[in-house]
Specification:
The strands form seven sheets. This protein has a seven-stranded mixed beta sheet, sandwiched between helices. Strands 4-3-2-1-5 form a five-stranded antiparallel beta sheet. The longest helix has about 130 residues. The termini are far apart. The protein is α+β, with helices and mostly antiparallel strands and about 1250 residues long. One of its GO terms (molecular function) is microfilament motor activity. Belongs to the TRAFAC class myosin-kinesin ATPase superfamily. Myosin family. It holds the Pfam family Myosin_N. It comes from Schizophyllum amplum.
Amino acid sequence: MPAPMPRPSLSAEAARAAAAQAEFNEKKWVWVPDEKEGYLAGWVNKEQGDTAEIIMAAGGEFRNVPLIALSKMNPPKFDRAEDIADLTFLNEASVVHNLRLRYGSGAIYTYSGLFLVAVNPYQHLPLYSDAVIQQYRNKRRDENPPHIFAVAERAWVNMGDERENQSILITGESGAGKTETTKKVIQFLAAIATDVHMPSHSRSPTLTHSNSYSGVMPAAGLPRSTPAPKRGHTASPSVTGSGFTSKGRLGLLERQILQANPVLEAFGNAQTQRNNNSSRFGKFIRISFAPDGSIAGANIDWYLLEKSRVVVRSEAERNFHVFYMLMAGGGSIKKDLLLDGDVEDYEYLNRSRREVDGVDDKEEWTALKASLEVVGFSPQEQIDLFRIVAAVLHIGNIVISATRDDDATMPHHAQAERVCYLLGLPVDEFKKAVLKPLARAGHEWVSQARTRQQACDELSALCKTLYEKSFGALVERINQALDRPSSKSTFIGVLDIAGFEIFEVNAYEQLLINYTNEKLQQFFNHHMFVLEQEEYAREGIKWDYVNFGLDLQPTIDLIEASGNVIGILSCLDEECIMPKATDLTFTNKLNTMWAGPVPRHEEAHPGRHKYEPSRFEQGFIIQHYAAKVEYRTDGWLEKNKDPLNDHLTRVLAQSSERYVASLFADYTSSGATVGKKRGLKKGAFRTVGQRHREQLASLMAQLQATQPHFVRCIVPNAHKKPGRVDVPLVLDQLRCNGVLEGIRIARLGYPNRLPFVEFRQRYELLTPGIIPRGYMDGREACRRMVKTLELDEAIFKIGTSKIFFKAGVLAELEERRDLLLFDIFSRLQAASRRWTARRQMRKILNRAVAIRTIQRNARVYGELRDWPWWQLYTKVRPLLAATRNDEELRRKEAEILLIKERAERDKQEREALQNLKMSLEADKRKVEDALEAERALAMDKDSLLERSKKHEAELEEEVLALQGDLDTLDSQLDRVMKLQKESEEKYEAMREMFDQAAEHLVRLESEQKEWAAREDELTGQLNGATEELDALQADMEELRKVSEELKNLAMQREEDLERVKDRSDVHFKEMEGKLNVEARNRELLKDKADTLEDEARQAKEQLAEMARTANEYSTMIQRKEERIARLTDELDASSVAAKQAAKEIIDLKSDIDTLAAELNAERQDRNRGVAAQAKLQAELDDLRTVLNAKTSEETRRDEAEKSLEQEVASLRSQVSQMEAEVTDARRTALELQGKLKSELEHNASARPKHS
């Protein structure tokens, strides 16, 4: 670490501060508003009424300014304050001046009450090294300068202490540095999580540096090692290299988490006018931690990928980074992907900016490949990702032209062949799906010729859909590598989402992004202001509710409302399904609802004040929290819908490339089973707005379940220049982000709080002897403690369960506690050192006594050695002991023999034990191997059990769906019965008509003799009747053909049913061979349920067909009834003339024949219906048998079985009724036919006699 920069002496600093303070005290300094600079410094020369004469500090210019427009200036000692809340005068000018001073000195992080403000420096500042990370480990916030690492450390500590999930919300406008801040948070968390199990001297990880970003978010610097009244800042080493500064220490999971960011940035980030590495999607990264503090896994949720950037963007911006990386460094991969050109050769790249200053796309490609390998992407998976990128480029080069009929055509096939080669599609099918797709029209498929513009739009939609689905698969693959869920883990979530956007032309994408930021800002306001004040009310603290005017709900309702007054997104969804709806009708509808007159009996919606119609363009204006934004509604309906036609999605789903087919697996279907396809996609079709609202609701639910930490990123200037501060721009962001309001409520309120128990446990040592032994109410204990601590009543409040403190009070108590603990531990250490010293002294004294004793004994021995008698004793003693020595020697020898024997026995026993030990160890290894095998088998069984449970849950859902189908079947059966009843009524009417015809025939016979003379005139009319009879016979032939078609259709349905049953049997046999004994019962249940579902669906289709047949017959009968009525009118009209009588006779005869034929056809149809009912009854009986077999295992099947039995009984009764009615109708028709024929024959025989 380089040596710190030399600092002036404390005396020089003190002298300079004293001089500045003296100069400040001589004048009344104020801030004067300025249009260009925001605020300028000056002092008051004199005041006149409501105005003041100000002398400007820069140039000495005199200005007359209203007093209300002036802002007070803080003393110089508050310059570069680390927490804006510490300023004496809290106003916009003071806040932005403090940020500007800190920004100029390289300190870009500043606390603002409870959250952190970060200003983008647009340059690389070397302040993210391992030493900086260690500097912020296990430190309180006020012990170090402001830093993003301090926020991450606080989230880490809170997660461990409170066992509560944490979230860090990094928000701000585009280009403010949110993405780099996210990477630094992940870097810090990975480092401290690794430190849990690794030595502290190891280096920490850093993210791979991305040269595509020129605005890294650095820290303010390092504090000095020794405390001082004002912290200095020393520089830390720069972060260089590949980013793996501690590769030997990091585990695979940590490295994968770190390297997932470069992969996401390559595919999801792009260069824009405001940011060289702008995130064009939002992400919420959850890093899970085990109870011991180590990283247990990670998960990434993504939102709002700007897929339109793939095909169109402004000239000053680029496509996603990966396109240029692949073109610059692809090498052999480019050849495999048929990319034989440069950036200029591809339409989707050559019409916008191609390079970014200071960025080497080839180096970025190398870093991307390395990151993909670390995350775990195989070479084939990498090729699949780049295959989609290359396919998009080739699709962009496809040329579409128009014929004379304005039909689209593809004159050159080379590019289409390249696309089809990469995507695994047949060229002819691809061209047909783009130029002349098949569409469903009733029961048939028809080809629709596309215009040139429609075909181009289809290709653009294909590119956007391909890229979006591939990006979703990329994130899902990363989650597979990182996500390792555990019920005991807690997580820290880091939110990085696109900031508020205002462009020259704001489209649908900008509305969704700004809507998301509106919701996040509402969450921030609710947490910082509303919840804070609500907790004061719950705790019974006296507090005057302060309305900071930050309620964004009217704007949110304007966008997402779905009640009586629908919002913009709901209105757009509604227009998407309306026929002949256009972007103009959508805009007009919005203007009518939100800008039109309000009915008298209704109150105006608060959102109406946030909406304005656009004056000169097709669009509208919304007043967001940041600013007014004008949106153009061109193309919104198409952007909100699924843009691809069904024909093209089916072709993609049947791709020979597995990866491409998997992207469109939801669209898998054949042209002959359109009904099933729609059944599979039922509920899958959602508009873009609906999908985003669901994702956003899920995100807000997750955030509300965490303890949030806020980081507000600020754009200092619009030119991406380091060291420059555009004060008006910064002020707009401070106002929009609620920074000033957050500081005010932090100063007015009580941001720090502790439960009574925790406060007593932590600070009771500051008040010894105050709380007696035994139980005492927590509130009373806290009251005694704060009284003993001599705290001012204005800086704390005692609630019902917590004690609240003003900002900084708890930090002061913590410092007093640390000092007391330091004193206690110092005394403890002193006592320990005293006891150790005394123990050492006792050892020294004992050693001295021992030495003196040894010396005294040595002197005595010297004197005794010179004594004659001692000398004689030493010579005689060995002789006296010789005999004893011999005896002792023999005894020892005997003992030695015994010892040798015992040693031999011990040796043998030891060898036996050694052999036994070796055999036991071998057995132990065998048992361990068997145990390991059993554990593996148990794990397999557990996984299999989990899959079985999942299958069982899916089966239950299918049973519920089947129950719904059976209910539908009942309703359809009711409709069939109703139609049958109507047919009976019509039969009754027909019988009445027959009776009337018979009576009329008798009258005609009595009048026949009177009109016999005019018989010749009736002959011509008889010929006309004959022709009409031929026409009726032709109609009857057509009906017979229809009947045959219905019969063939029924036979085809039966064959389809048999094929479905065969496929189900084959599937059952395949599954039966794969599963073990534990899963057989559940798989059998699944197969039976599948069979039940297919047969029930077939039965439903048959009943629907019967209902349609009954409707056709009813229509036919009604048509015949109308004809009979018309003929009756003709008979009445011709009653005057005798010629009409003969015509009526012929007509009645022909009608009788026709009715007889119709009755026969009806009888045949009824017979076929009875057969179908019998077949359905047999199938339902089989289903009931299957259900009865599974009754003991699944009690839920009882309801389905009962409903089936009721249905069978109902069908049986209906069949019997239908048979009886058909028999009655047949008998009645035969009687009438016989009667009429006999009468006609009688008349015919009587006519020759009369003649």
